[in-house]
Specification:
With 405 residues, this protein is an alpha/beta fold. The protein is built from 14 helices and 15 strands. It has an 11-stranded mixed β-sheet, with helices on both faces. Bound molecules: nicotinamide-adenine-dinucleotide. The site of nicotinamide-adenine-dinucleotide has 17 residues, from loops.
């Protein structure tokens, strides 16, 4: 086995045949994982003619792990994911009951996967609720580890809530109703800065046009507003040669050298901007809660979550995943749509620098949608015959072309 090596605090070295971890996932997970791995292997083979390949290492988590070990996420699985550095996962059931945290949240925190990255673009042929879905080509960088998601909150009648209400009243003369629950929204300089840094680095590497900082800083000045200020600061201090602010850009239009425009929008405005001025937005960097709402809304513009890929990315570790859940009613029936996981795999290949294989997959998937070769979730809206999950994978493989890279 050749594992991906960690070279520095932020760098990895990928061998020609890296061991990549995969979690099949629960529900439809095994169906879509099988298909996604087949598609990824075919694309890598086509792109590199055997000079590169992936050695897949199965890692257990979720229901399968619970049946085998009594734990949903055993330590051995975490250790293997750590060894692999880069992994891909199908959806996992969130166990219900007090004391259970989402396995996804656990993984993000354990590996400090601070950026939730969601590329959203349109595949012609996919049913969409808007007139010009082809204008959508955005990548959302959502902060993954703080904000109201930090889970710091207390029930209205808890001792902690009483104590905090008392303290705020006593020390700051801030009156909070006696029946109010309390939640805390931490937004730190360190975590905001590293998220925006990653978004700008991505924009540079992929030759993109702009990075928009989305925030609600007009109301929450020292959390959301600070996110915006720190975002501009990191652009100014670390990427001066590559970036201009929107104001600088409009003062000197037509500058010949390519630079990334850094701009900011208030969240509510951004929700209408992505509909009314879609083409003006490219890379988006935002806080956790804004990103949660915004990424689903933008995905809806291009036909929904069913086909949207995603990755949770830290400085070195990364886990790519289907954005949807386990769809238990389709489990084991070979009818689920594997597109989200296939495209997440393509995103993973791009992340490790295997751009040619990634391009091959994206273009072949696009061709399937153009030709209405789709699974039942899409087929019933398009009024065409549905393919099985595995048949869709075969159709993608059939359409792979080397020249597309
Ligand atoms: P879901 O995404 O599983 O299902 C929502 C709807 O979309 C259902 O009608 C489902 O049948 C359909 N659907 C989803 N993926 C599909 C696919 N690939 N092909 C065809 N149809 C598809 O969401 P849910 O019902 O809210 O959640 C079910 C379980 O999944 C829960 O335990 C939840 O915690 C978990 N979940 C996991 C993740 C993850 O692992 N990243 C994400 C979301 C939900």
């Amino acid at each position: 086995m050749a594992f991906i090596e960690i070279e520095s605090e932020t760098g990895i070295k990928v061998p020609d045949s890296p061991t990549i971890g995969y979690i099949e996932g629960d529900g439809i997970g095994p169906d879509i994982s099988r298909v996604a791995i087949k598609v990824l292997n075919s694309a890598v083979e086509m792109a590199y003619h055997g000079n590169k390949s992936v050695e897949w290492k199965k890692v257990i988590a979720g229901d399968e792990a619970y049946e085998k070990t009594g734990k949903h996420l055993p330590q051995e699985s975490l250790d293997m994911l750590k060894k692999c550095v880069i992994s891909i996962k199908g959806p996992l059931t969130t166990p219900i009951g007090e004391g259970f945290r989402s396995l996804n949240v656990t993984l993000r925190q354990y590996f400090d996967l601070y950026a939730n990255v969601r590329p959203v673009r349109y595949f012609p042929g996919v049913p969409s609720p808007v007139k010009n879905p082809e204008l959508v080509n955005m990548v959302i960088f959502r902060e993954n580890t703080e904000d109201l998601y930090a889970g710091i909150e207390w029930r209205y009648n808890s001792d902690e809530a009483k104590m905090i209400r008392w303290y705020l009243n006593e020390k700051f003369q801030v009156k909070i109703p006696d029946d109010a629950g309390i939640g805390i929204k931490p937004i730190s300089k360190f975590k905001s800065t590293r998220l925006v840094r990653k978004a700008i680095q991505y924009a540079i590497q992929n030759h993109r046009k702009s990075v928009t900082l989305v925030h609600k800083g007009n109301i929450m000045k020292y959390t959301e507003g600070a996110f915006k200020e720190w975002g501009y600061e990191v652009a100014r201090e670390e990427f001066k040669d590559y970036t201009v602010t929107e104001e600088e850009y409009s003062n000197s239009p037509g500058t010949s050298s390519w630079k990334i425009v850094i701009k900011d929008r208030i969240t509510d405005n951004m929700f209408q901007q992505v509909l009314t001025r879609t083409q003006d937005y490219d890379i988006i960097a935002t806080t956790n809660l804004n990103g949660d709402y915004l990424s689903d809304a933008i995905a809806a513009q291009v036909g929904g979550l069913g086909i949207a890929p995603g990755g949770n990315i830290g400085d070195v570790y990364a886990i790519f995943e289907a954005v949807h859940g386990t769809a238990p009613k389709y489990a084991g029936m070979d009818i689920a749509n594997p597109t989200s996981l296939i495209l997440s795999g393509a995103m993973m290949l791009r992340h490790i620098g295997w751009v040619e294989a990634s391009d091959i997959i994206e273009e072949a998937v696009g061709e399937c949608y153009r030709e209405q070769k789709v699974t039942q979730d899409m087929a019933r809206v398009m009024n065409v015959k549905a393919l099985k999950c595995s048949e869709f994978g075969d159709e993608v493989v059939k359409r792979m072309r080397k020249s597309s890279s």
